[in-house]
Automatic annotation (TrEMBL):
Pfam families for this protein: MCPsignal
Protein name per the record: Methyl-accepting chemotaxis protein
Classification via InterPro entries: Chemotax_Me-accpt_rcpt, MCP_chemotaxis, MCPsignal_dom
Source organism superkingdom: Bacteria
Entry similarity comment: Belongs to the methyl-accepting chemotaxis (MCP) protein family.
Domain annotation Methyl-accepting transducer: ranges: 166-395
SMART domains, alphabetized: MA (SM00283)
Length: 411
């Protein structure tokens, strides 16, 4: 067939074949083609083989490129990337079929994930109106997943609608409750303020009544003291009147003594005149006696003047003593009337004091009742404010729930 082939040629053919085996087994990347051996027939055979091997090398490289893309695409799919495609192609039917099958699978997965992602994103953005159209090509788990997503969307849609309806009702009710609690808190606060004012007024009245009771007791005590003083004044006035009578008696005795002195002065004056006449009759011998008689006459005159002055003073003293007696008599009458009035006043004050004591007892009971009512009212205010705060929080939550429900789209 080949003509004369030497052992060297056989060895070259053997090495060529072994290199080919390694090349197609991918143990060798590059192939060393033999273009010329010096044997024309052998060179023609190698030329034919080289063309076939180059064709195989080209197809293998195409296959390797497609397989490389398949590996890279599989790595992307493992990472969750489904929009990648195998772009390379091969004349190898097996590799070409594998490439087309994988691309078709990627299209199907990409379509399914796009549908799922679109609906899930819609749900994430609170739009529950979208759903997945399940086509017949999806089977088993993928079909179950799509149907489950649609069921989830229906549940979310129903929940959003219910939340919206409940939010509207809750907001209306919370508004009414908040308004009622505001009115209740306002009225409770007004009641508490009124009770505080009432309690303060009662406390003030209690203090006033207590002070009045104390003052009434003091007035009763002072009334007794004044009554005692009046009795003492009346006694002193009686003693004064008695002293005035005694003074009057003494004045009468003095008047009688003055009358005697006046008579003695008159008689002494007569005697002095007689002595003067006798002395004049005696002449020179009676001059000395005349001087004595004159002095006695002067003394009698002065005694008479003094007696007259004393008489005038005694008469004035008598008038004053009579006036003092009348005043003492009037004072006694006044003290008697004052004593009667003070006695009546003391009785009235004691009645007022007893009534004030009874009144303060009742007021203290009222004060205790008001204090208890005030304490209960303060507790009610605290409870009312707490419920009011809860109502306001509920109102805020209801408003937020309604806003949240309004932000969602549903059928």
């Amino acid at each position: 067939m080949f003509g004369a082939i030497s052992n060297k040629d056989l060895e070259t053919i053997d090495n060529y074949f072994k290199q080919f085996i390694k090349f197609i087994s991918y143990d060798k990347n590059e192939f060393n083609y033999i273009e010329s051996t010096g044997n024309k027939k052998l060179d023609s055979m190698f030329k034919s083989w080289n063309e076939q091997i180059k064709t195989i090398d080209k197809r293998n490289k195409e296959d390797m490129k497609v397989l490389g893309e398949i590996v890279l695409t599989a790595d992307k799919v493992e990472q969750g990337i489904y929009k990648c495609r195998i772009k390379g192609n091969s004349s190898n039917p097996t590799i070409s079929t594998l490439r087309n099958t994988l691309n078709k699978m990627l299209v199907s997965i990409d379509d399914a994930t796009s549908r799922l992602l679109r609906v899930v994103n819609s749900y994430t953005n609170n739009d529950f109106t979208d759903s997945i159209k399940v086509v017949d090509k999806y089977k088993e788990e993928m079909r179950s997943l799509m149907e489950s997503i649609n069921v989830l969307g229906k549940v979310l849609n129903d929940n959003a609608r219910n939340n919206y309806n409940n939010g509207e009702v809750l907001e209306k009710n919370s508004f009414v409750m908040t308004s009622s609690m505001n009115n209740l808190a306002s009225k409770t606060n007004e009641q508490a303020a009124s009770l505080e004012q009432t309690s303060a007024a009662i406390e003030e009245i209690t203090n006033i009544t207590r002070n009045n009771t104390q003052n009434a007791t003091k007035m009763a005590s002072l009334g007794h003291i004044v009554k005692k003083s009046v009795l003492e004044g009346e006694d002193l006035a009686s003693k004064t009147a008695k002293s005035m009578d005694e003074i009057n008696d003494k004045v009468k005795a003095i008047n009688e003594s003055i009358s005697i002195i006046d008579q003695i002065a008159f008689q002494t004056n007569i005697l002095s005149l007689n002595a003067a006449v006798e002395a004049a009759t005696a002449g020179e011998a009676g001059k000395g006696f005349a001087v004595v008689a004159q002095e006695v006459r002067n003394l009698a005159s002065r005694s008479a003047e003094a007696a007259h002055e004393i008489k005038n003073l005694v008469e004035e003293a008598t008038l004053k003593a009579n006036d003092g007696k009348k005043v003492s008599s009037d004072m006694i009458n006044g003290y008697e009337e004052l004593n009667n009035n003070i006695t009546q006043t003391i009785q009235i004050i004691e009645d007022v004091s007893n009534a004030s004591k009874e009144q303060i007892t009742r007021i203290e009971q009222i004060n205790q009742a008001v204090d208890m009512l005030d304490r209960f009212t303060q507790e009610n205010v605290a409870e009312s404010n707490q419920v009011k705060a809860i109502a306001q929080n509920v109102s805020k939550l209801a408003h937020q729930l309604l806003i949240d429900a309004q932000s969602k789209k549903f059928n």
